[in-house]
Amino acid sequence: MKDYQTHVFTSTYTADVSGVCSAMYELGGMSVIHDPSGCNSTYSTHDEPRWFDGKSLMFISGLDEMTAVLGDDEVIIKDIAAAAADLKPEFITLCGGSIPHIIAFDFKGTAHLIEKRCNIPVVPVPTDGLKSYISGVGMALTEWIKRFADVKVQKTPELSVNLMGVTPLDFSINGNVEKMRETFEKAGIKVNCCAAMGESFESMIKLYAAHVNVVVSSAGRRPARYMEKTGGIPRVEGLPIGEAEAGKLIKAVREAAADGKNKIVYDEALEHEDWEVPGDGILVIGEEVFALSLADAINELPESERHGLKAYAIWPDVDEGLPEEQLMEAVKRSKMVIADPLYKVIPHDKAIKFIDFPHEAYSGRIYRKQIPVFATDEFDTAKLIK
Amino acid sequence: MKEFQYIKDMKYEYNADDGLAYASPVRGVWNIVHIGTLVPGGHQIYVCPTSCLRGVVLTTAEMGRMDKLSTITVGEDNIIEGNMEEQLLHGTERIIEELPERPKMIMVFISCIHHFLAVNYQRIYKILREEYPDIDFIDAYMDPIMRRTAPVVPVLWRQMTRPFKRPESWKKDQVNYLGNCFTYGAEYCDLTALLNKNGIKTLEANNVSSYEEYISMQESEVNFVFHNTGEKAARDLEIRNKTKWLRMHPGYDYDVLEEDLCKAAELVGIEPPSKEWFENERALTDEAVAKTKELLGDTAVAIDYTAVDYPLELTEFMLERGFNVESVFLDAITESEERFEKLKVKKPDLKVYGTIGWNIRQMDRSHEGKIVCVGQKSAYFMNSDNFVNVIENAGMCGFSGIRHLMELIREAYSEEKPMREIVSIKGWGCSCV
């Protein structure tokens, strides 16, 4: 039986609550995490590179033992109403950590009461602090779309896409998002919305104007599925890492716009079950769409440029994370590992080539300056593994 | 709502931990991970949901000390199946078996969720102690939900001394300092200088080099405490081991400083400093303060609680000597009510900022004209590069401590520091880095 929970050496991915705040950060709202303490400083220190310079609103409720034991929701209702009356956010997002989860805090009901009291829309996002940011970003974007996006908005006259699941947790603030937009625009495809970086509350309302949703992070799957269900927008899953991968993605977008069918750009055979990746290859560890896209991009290279090796991907489970023992085995079996530098703490043979690829959702701000601009057709995949 | 209050409008019961809380990007103050990492040969295991683990893991990773920490994630399965005890036991066993070096002490931090699920963790520690008799297992807590009755930092300092057993005899040539993040050396601490002069060494978590030396602290007959955070540890050792203790007051009232030093000397059984020594110290300190005032002139000053334990006392001290102290940043009042009321009369328009209230997030972080800040938080909120970069008194106590603080204020006035880079560093000056 796999032990997903004990981590002797390895770090942990960002949690769902930070994912919610990250997704909502630029939309003019006020995010509140219902939790005792700590989640706000974790988010603002490790998970939110925009915190020092910005003035976006994110707070914690400061739940204490008596309030939790008595189930006194009036405390948070009153506190949020007081802050909202003063700060006047466009909307309020309410999510929570593990204690509200186990005391069965009613997110929807409380959101309704707050909304009635302060006349500001409140979006409940029932996180539990037990899952990864993928869950939090996905839930928050979906709930926001449900509440605010205009499903009847007119489609753009030209072919356009939304980039779904975009937060600094996967793309940092180093120009990745701008380059990703540029990649589509160079190919003549308009980026209608980038959910949710570089957008405003008003621009996000027009999400349904796009012809295709591009899921560039697994965090974007949930809102894209919702938009498919409610607006018939097909989704394409992939990331434009390097010229070949970008070319495949652009082609898939055009096809999806024409036939209305969902597409997956990367080689699905790279998906694995039970954490068993074949040995003697290149192991990519990271967020699912990124890891699969990078592995696919490597496999698109001529055999000589990838040292005759095939790339495989491993990514953390949204609910459980990574089972450390299986991960250690996978690292040991590989010739080359592409992963966040914090994975180097896994005991491994020096013959294994370790290529640093920092990921904000794993190592936070530690290696931020070394995060490459990868979400572009200009990314040189061959150089990465040279 | 304004981001500050004038002191004249405030009540003594003021506490900023009320309502939605904000976290500033100022990260210099130590957290439990930094403190726990001080124990040589120690290892920390945090047992919490992902959202709570993230902060402690990355704090450790930023220190480059992932070798001192492991984690056990609490998942939905544990909640539903009620198998938290098994998970804790088996996870700890696996960690011990896989670590390259056997730890001498393991601090197992459980979290808020364990209290609500009535986890019988003491039973697990009992099993572990029997299974690994060569390791000291410490029950530790990261449970901010209990912060109003059992705040995490003082509780950790207490738990860290739990391996101390009552010795057969006391070592007369050593005393302990409990609850200090920074070493109180002889240069800026009058008590250390006095003790060292009398052949007595001071042991603290941050100046011992091995676990054996750390445990040898149990043989000290006297514990000294400089911060509120160390009091729980001292009281606990008094009850368990009959170790005497004294609370020192790292403040700015000369009479109290003298009194403290005399009491300390009596407790340890040494001669207190002479009257002439005290007179000389007072004169030297006055001189240092006057020199600082002369340099600063009417330059505005802001003081915050992250730098000094008694920001209002320092404010009063500086106001009395002509400084233009304009604002104070604090989340609770640590001084006596009498001192607070006196200050209200002396400077009714003193601005008091809470640093964790929601209303401070969007404040205009600027100051008209130069301002010298004592502490990272005031520097951040005033957007000033002229600041004293000190956390928790940084080992300063007594006359020599005040003189050093004045020196740092003069330096802050004359030289700018890269505030953004400095305040963003977690656990400033943590000796385990």
Elements of chain A, N to C (H/E): EHEHEHHEHHEHEHHEHEHEHEEHEHEEHH
What shape does the CA trace of chain A take? Answer: globular
* CATH-derived architecture of the largest domain in chain A: 3-Layer(aba) Sandwich
Low-confidence stretches of chain B: none
Mean pLDDT of chain B: 95
Main sheet of chain B, how many strands, which sense, barrel?
Answer: 6 strands, mixed
Number of strands of chain B: 14
Assign the CATH class of the largest domain in chain A.
Alpha Beta
Radius of gyration of chain A: 21 Å
Percentage of β-strand residues of chain B: 15-25%
Assembly level: heterodimer
Please give the share of residues in helix of chain A: 25-40%
What does this entry look like structurally?
The complex is a heterodimer of chains A (386) and B (433). Chain A is of the alpha/beta class. Chain A folds into 3 domains: 16-148, Rossmann fold; 160-264, Rossmann fold, CATH 3.40.50.1980; 268-384, Rossmann fold. In chain A, 39% of the residues lie in helices and 14% in strands. Chain A is built from 16 helices and 14 strands. Chain A has helices at residues 16-24, 39-47, 65-70, 74-87, 98-102, 107-118, 133-148, 168-171, 176-186, 201-205, 221-231, 242-259, 288-300, 324-333, 360-363, 381-384; strands at 6-7, 30-34, 57-60, 92-96, 122-124, 160-164, 190-195, 212-215, 235-237, 263-264, 282-285, 311-314, 336-339, 353-356. In chain A, the strands form 3 sheets. A 5-stranded parallel beta sheet of chain A has the order 7-6-8-9-10, sandwiched between helices. In chain A, strands 3-2-4-5 form a 4-stranded parallel beta sheet, sandwiched between helices. In chain A, helix 2 (39-47) links the parallel strand 2 (30-34) and strand 3. In chain B, strand 2, helix 2 (50-63) and strand 3 form a beta-alpha-beta unit. In chain B, strands 1-12-11-10-13-14 form a 6-stranded mixed beta sheet. In chain B, strands 3-2-4-5 form a 4-stranded parallel beta sheet, sandwiched between helices. By secondary structure, chain B is of the alpha/beta class. Chain B is built from 17 helices and 14 strands. Chain B starts with a strand and ends in a 10-residue tail after the last helix. Among the domains of chain B are: 4-22 and 293-423; 32-150, Nitrogenase molybdenum iron protein domain (Rossmann fold, 3-Layer(aba) Sandwich). Classes of the chains: A alpha/beta (386), B alpha/beta (433). Chains A and B meet through strand 1, helix 1, helix 2, strand 3 and helix 3 of A and helix 2, strand 3, helix 3, helix 4 and helix 5 of B.
